[in-house]
């Protein structure tokens, strides 16, 4: 019986040590996950992720406007979005590489829906919807880039926001001018 007891207690002690070791590893993993999650969820990282997706969306919708725009102004603005936001996207990718950050490679669901909606429009209805969307997007972008440029903690991301803000402000001014010069029409439903 003594041999059985020692074997039994040996198994119990071994099992307990495995359980405790597993719990210790779980705790370490949780700490590591929490740490990496905090890093990825910092306001600077969140800004960079949103800026990356926004830039991709501006290029995608800009291509649509350059192709489908009804007015020369909308076509030209669309091409400017492709050119300027492609440069900004490349700049942000460079910053992300230095920061060991992986940026999204595609637009989010809301932006995809906007693109899909625009693809179905043509003529004046396309121009009105595109211009309206660009005014709203750029108003929000100016706020977000200004906030990051003023309050960012990550020097590289903050510098990107500061470099890009004047370009986005210029886009907002230009698209508002295009909007104010559009013919007034209630027939399009837009």
Q: What can you see in these coordinates?
A:
The chain is mostly helical. The chain has 2 domains: 1-41; 43-180, Ferritin (Up-down Bundle), CATH 1.20.1260. Helices cover 83% and strands 0% of the residues.
Q: Brief overview, please?
A:
With 190 residues, the protein is mainly alpha-helical.
Summary tags:
190 residues, mainly alpha, Ferritin
Arithmetic mean pLDDT: 83
Label the CATH architecture of the largest domain: Up-down Bundle
- Return the CATH topology of the largest domain: Ferritin
Shape: elongated
Q: How many individual helices?
A: 6
Give the C-alpha Rg: 26 Å
CATH superfamily of the largest domain: Ferritin, core subunit, four-helix bundle
Number of domains: 2
Range of strand content: under 5%
Instruction: Point out poorly predicted stretches.
Output: 6-39
**What would you call the structural class?**
mainly alpha
Give me the count of strands.
0
Q: Biggest sheet: strands, sense, closure?
A: none
Share in helix:
over 70%
Q: State the end-to-end distance.
A: 89 Å
Task: Name the CATH class of the largest domain.
Answer: Mainly Alpha
Order of helices and strands: HHHHHH
Task: Produce the secondary structure layout.
Layout: H1 2-40, H2 43-68, H3 72-98, H4 109-119, H5 123-151, H6 155-180
Helix pairs in contact: 2-3, 2-4, 2-5, 3-6, 5-6
